[in-house]
Write a structure and sequence with these properties.
The chain is built from six helices and nine strands, in the order E-H-E-E-H-E-H-E-E-E-E-E-H-H-H. It is α/β, with parallel strands linked by helices. The longest helix has 24 residues. The radius of gyration is 16 Å and the shape is globular.
């Protein structure tokens, strides 16, 4: 059995970030690994804090900051975590354990970010961050690339599946072809 925690999943899902849970659940269930929701991020195998509207951040920002010590422990231990988009920007501007990004004008574009651990990561960004589009400590990831990034980045997905007690994804050929077509269209 594996578990996940999602911070206010109904409000922190601006760009389909909660789809990352669906992707993990799909491949874990193929491997007969149960993937259940828990209410405590410290006991979860995987944590996600998705992109949110300004209104959601105003409403739940204090609660998100109260979660920061648990997230810091996960960061220090390199535990499987995705903090995405506006939530990443918000936390990076409020806590000392995430590098403070440089801000500039908002840039909206498809982007490829080269990483050492997972190769090129593709996604869409809509952010005022000038740097730090994808930061990682172990399996802890903060990123401006939102949406179901695990579905578009098979190597990163495999790493998160392993962190959740599963094994690498067994892709159906047509699914993998579709993912590669998306990756190629973003990269060009």
């Amino acid at each position: 059995m594996s578990s996940y925690f999602s911070f206010h999943k109904d409000y922190f899902d601006n760009n389909g970030d909660q789809g990352n849970l669906s992707v993990l659940n799909y491949f874990l269930s193929q491997q007969s690994v149960l993937f259940d929701e828990v209410t405590d991020p410290e006991s979860a195998d995987f944590v996600i804090v998705g992109d949110a509207s300004r209104a959601a951040l105003r409403e739940y920002g204090t609660e998100l900051l109260a979660l920061a010590p648990a997230l810091q422990k996960r960061h220090s231990a390199g535990l499987a975590t995705l903090i995405i988009g506006s939530s990443y920007e918000f936390l990076a501007s409020q806590v000392s354990w995430l590098e403070t990004p440089k801000l500039g004008p908002i840039t909206s574009e498809f982007r490829t970010v080269d990483t050492l651990d997972a190769g090129p990561i593709v996604g869409y960004r809509n952010s005022s961050l000038l740097n730090l589009d994808f930061v990682r400590n172990g399996d802890f990831v903060g990123t401006t690339l939102f949406g179901p990034i695990l579905a578009k980045n098979p190597t990163l997905l495999d790493q998160m599946l392993l962190a959740c007690g599963g094994s690498s994804a067994d892709w159906k050929p047509q699914m993998l072809d579709w993912v590669e077509t998306i990756r190629e269209s973003i990269s060009t």
